[in-house]
From TrEMBL:
Xref: HAMAP family: NqrB (MF_00426)
Name of the protein this chain belongs to: Na(+)-translocating NADH-quinone reductase subunit B
Pfam family, one: NQR2_RnfD_RnfE
Subcellular location: Cell membrane
Membrane topology: Multi-pass membrane protein
Protein's job: NQR complex catalyzes the reduction of ubiquinone-1 to ubiquinol by two successive reactions, coupled with the transport of Na(+) ions from the cytoplasm to the periplasm. NqrA to NqrE are probably involved in the second step, the conversion of ubisemiquinone to ubiquinol.
GO biological process, one term: respiratory electron transport chain
Catalytic activity, reaction form: a ubiquinone + n Na(+)(in) + NADH + H(+) = a ubiquinol + n Na(+)(out) + NAD(+)
Residue list for modification FMN phosphoryl threonine: 226
Entry-linked PANTHER family: ELECTRON TRANSPORT COMPLEX PROTEIN RNFD (PTHR30578), NA(+)-TRANSLOCATING NADH-QUINONE REDUCTASE SUBUNIT B (PTHR30578:SF1)
Transmembrane regions listed in the UniProt entry: 56-75, 115-133, 153-179, 249-274, 281-301, 313-331, 343-361, 367-387
Amino acid sequence: MGLRNFFDRIEPNFVKGGKYERYFPIYEMVESFLFTPKTVTTAAPHARSYVDMKRIMTYVVIATVPCILFGMYNVGLQTNMAIAEFGASGWRAWIIETLGIGFNANNALANVLHGALYFLPIYIVTLAAGGFWEVLFATIRRHEVNEGFLVTSMLYTLILPASTPLWQVALGISFGVVIGKEVFGGTGKNFLNPALVGRAFLYFAYPAYMSGDTIWTPVDGYSGATALAVTASEGVSQLATYGITWMDAFVGTIQGSFGETSTIACLIGLAFLLTTRIANYRMVLGCLLGMIAFSSLLNWIGSDTNPAFATPWYWHLVIGGYAFGLVFMVTEPVSGSHTNAGRWIYGALIGFMVVMIRVINPAFPEGMMLAILFGNVFAPLIDYFVVQANIRRRARRNA
């Protein structure tokens, strides 16, 4: 109880009238992260729950742990395999050689530690830059630091390539937090996913750093196409010539952003979110059904000029960022639909859009990011029509 007593003792300095009143958001951020807020009701007839917003956000971060661990392993694996051919250089190589870890791609620990040297700097810069804006806006507005950034920072890091320059990392998260959320009032008032807004900004502002064959494995001179790029340009049947099987894509030992390559890691996170009821199953099933239905339709239609038409739904599931977006972005409650019927429609719209962008638009083989942002824009309209339909139905029933 010593830590609890410490916070109780210094609290008068931060509340209204205290000499550090202006910095109450910072005090509250740390205190409520460590302890359940004292504002939770404990007596009838009030509805009460000890699973506050910070705990919900913590659950989402816990759900990303399999993606984080496998992402570090896979980045280390891909990098160590490339180093065997092109050699190593830079401060990361110096650290690994100094510690005697080595660049053996068959050593799982060496892969994880090497991958961590790429993951941690990006995550630390994300926390520093994004956290600065969060605290700044909270201090100016004199309200609590919004806990949503805990999730935003992790998701943003996991959807970036390992080779992303750190200055771009800071610029992207700043854009996502300020333009994607804070200008609308902060957490709970944004209609777009901030992590995706930051990633989309980087993609369109610095496309050479966010797409192509040279960005996924951070070794100078190395070039290799992702499974999604091969599927879009040559067809899914040609993946075997690149040594990529469906199981490779499902497990995640292929090139891609940190947290997006492993479908099985994403599904472990999904199981946790569904069990804790943080994620709504209607959005998940709607997105799956929309993707399966439209990709199957395109398979049936076929095309002599576009090989991506032949991509079956089970390949769409495991390549690109579909699985990661399905689990952690589609189910995001703030920017998604809030009515039960609307959640089905919202999920199906994203599932439809991701296939349409991937297949019909050859210039943009990865469609999940834009599909989710498109769904975010239409979520309020979907809910509006659902509510109006319910009003009309009840009016007819009671007429």
